[in-house]
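Intended use. Records such as the 2,3-bisphosphoglycerate-dependent phosphoglycerate mutase entry shown here are meant for training and evaluating sequence-to-structure methods. They are not intended to support clinical decisions.
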Amino acid sequence: MAFLVLVRHGQSVANLANVFTGWLDVVLTPQGEDEARAAGTKLRDFHFDQAYCSTLVRSKRTLELILAQLHQDTVPVHATDALRERMYGALQGLNKTETVLKYGQEQVNRWRRGYDDAPPEGETLHHTQERVVSYYEQEIVPQLRLGRHVLVVSHGNTLRALRMQLEGLSVAQVEALEIPTGGVRVYILTPELSISRMYDL
């Protein structure tokens, strides 16, 4: 029986500044580093065979801190663009509050939360899901089928998209789903990869 653990990266400097981040490559804040270590502490009873993260530094650093906390630095790590955050296009780097004042709360909510609403020059959550799920099925599922235990450290929208697939969430459910920085989700899987149990740490 394999397990799959999903972790959102710790707080970044862009999260703290309340700006749209997307593919901007920003570092963790001191609080974000503490959140990463805390996630590692929560996972102290887990041993991982494979680890995956995005190529963005906030994801890679969070994974590095988790594995160091677990004393599992030799776990193979796979960094991929497929697990990057949703591309926010022209919104990247803009302050969220100022964007609401310019475009209105309803429009910004659609860009931020909507499944099929793309920010200007950006990705929809639907598009994000397609690339994330494709990578998951091609690269991670074969590891799980071998009974290997997998850790994935990624981003809020990336993990929302993957959880939609794993948990069979509706569009309305995924649009309402919030994943905190440093949030940990655990799935215990049967040999057929059905979810026998899932919970947050």
